[in-house]
């Protein structure tokens, strides 16, 4: 089975012509019998059970390496995990192009570096240690990206840079400690803008740039939702009706944005927090013990209906947007 990225690389290497690949893609598109397939949010993760098999084997290897190295020195064990993760990526990521393995090896590579820094800086703490960990991990993520181009790398780097920047900002300007939700919202907006830029660079979503955007959307949504909920005081047990309307309005806004940008991930990544918040509101309203069940029933039913009519819903939303904005969004097909 060949992916769109494989076809693009074949064109770049002169194996097949760009005209032939375009004709093949048009032929496959014409054979689609279900209209909403055009809006499927493809996500590369598994090519077969062998991916899971390799991940399990690698996890056992890395665990044993870290354990043995730890007996010599904690920092040595952590660093050994990072080195072995990089070595494994040279084959399983660069040669075999295993998406799940790439994610796991990136996380173990960065995790080993973080653990090594913490082991060396035993007894240290505060903003200095956090800044060192954040900057070192971000640099390591950048180096890893230059070598392997794992789509989750950009989102991972943002996840370590955002708290680092916030911590440094608070250390420099102490009164910002009272504006943490606003800073988190800013980080979420930055992730969202970056995701839109990656999406705009590949509107047809044929390359790994779309996967980079996918992971950035997964990071952006919970950051934005959590900070907005915090700033609106939705955890306050008073004013249940107002909070219920605010939750409904917020999730409706997320749904409209998700339809416009054709990213279910943006809406799903915030689903857990919305379920928790809305069920808590129902419990405060007197539906004790049934809040989560009622919430899951309502939201689950709504999501199923939205999934069934996703393409039509997208047409209804996108058609009302300015033409200049429509041109930067995923095509309706």
How would you portray this structure in words?
By secondary structure, this protein is mostly helical. Among the domains are: 1-31; 233-333, no CATH class. It is 75% helix and 0% strand. Helix 4 (74-92) packs antiparallel against helix 5 (99-120). Residues 32-38 have low confidence and may be disordered.
Would you kindly provide a brief summary of this structure?
The protein has 15 helices and no strands. The chain has helices at residues 4-12, 18-30, 49-72, 74-92, 99-120, 126-148, 152-172, 180-200, 208-232, 240-261, 264-268, 271-284, 291-308, 310-318, 323-326.
User: How would you sum up the major sheet?
Assistant: none
Strand content: under 5%
The quaternary structure here is: single chain
**Structural class label:** mainly alpha
Task: Tell me the number of helical segments per DSSP (H or I, 4 or more residues long).
Answer: 15
Computed over alpha carbons, the radius of gyration is 23 Å
In sequence order, what are the helices and strands, one letter per element?
A: HHHHHHHHHHHHHHH
Uncertain stretches of 5 or more adjacent residues: 32-38
Give the N-terminus to C-terminus distance in angstroms: 24 Å
Output mean pLDDT.
84
List how many beta strands DSSP finds.
0
Helicity, in percent?
over 70%
Choose one word for the global shape.
globular
């Amino acid at each position: 089975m060949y992916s769109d990225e494989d076809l693009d690389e074949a064109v770049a290497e002169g194996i097949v012509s760009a005209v032939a690949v375009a004709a093949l893609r048009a032929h496959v598109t014409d054979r689609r019998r279900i209209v909403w397939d055009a809006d499927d949010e493809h996500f590369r993760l598994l090519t077969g059970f062998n991916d899971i098999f390799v991940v399990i084997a690698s996890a056992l290897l890395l665990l044993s390496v870290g354990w043995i190295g730890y007996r010599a020195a904690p920092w040595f064990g952590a660093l050994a995990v990072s080195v072995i993760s990089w070595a494994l990526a040279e084959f399983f990521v660069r040669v075999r192009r295993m998406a799940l393995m790439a994610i796991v090896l990136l996380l173990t590579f960065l995790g080993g570096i973080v653990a090594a820094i913490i082991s060396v800086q035993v007894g240290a703490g505060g903003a200095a240690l956090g800044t060192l960990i954040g900057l070192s991990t971000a640099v390591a993520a950048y180096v890893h990206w230059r070598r392997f181009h794992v789509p989750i790398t950009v989102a991972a780097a943002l996840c370590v840079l955002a708290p680092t920047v916030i911590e440094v900002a608070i250390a420099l300007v102490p009164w910002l400690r009272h504006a943490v939700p606003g800073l988190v919202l800013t980080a979420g907006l930055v992730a969202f803008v970056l995701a839109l830029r990656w999406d705009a660079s590949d509107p047809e979503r044929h390359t790994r740039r779309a996967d980079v955007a996918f992971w950035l959307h997964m990071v952006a949504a919970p950051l934005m939702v959590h900070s907005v909920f915090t700033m609106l005081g939705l955890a306050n047990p008073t004013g249940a009706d107002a909070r219920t309307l605010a939750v409904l309005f917020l999730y409706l806004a997320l749904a409209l944005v998700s339809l416009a940008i054709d990213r279910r991930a943006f809406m799903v990544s915030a689903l857990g927090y919305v379920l928790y918040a809305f069920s808590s509101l129902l419990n405060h309203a007197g539906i004790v013990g049934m809040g989560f069940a009622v919430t899951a029933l309502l939201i689950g039913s709504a999501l199923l209906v939205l999934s069934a009519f996703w393409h039509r819903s997208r047409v209804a939303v996108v058609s009302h947007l300015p033409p200049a904005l429509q041109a930067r969004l995923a095509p309706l097909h």
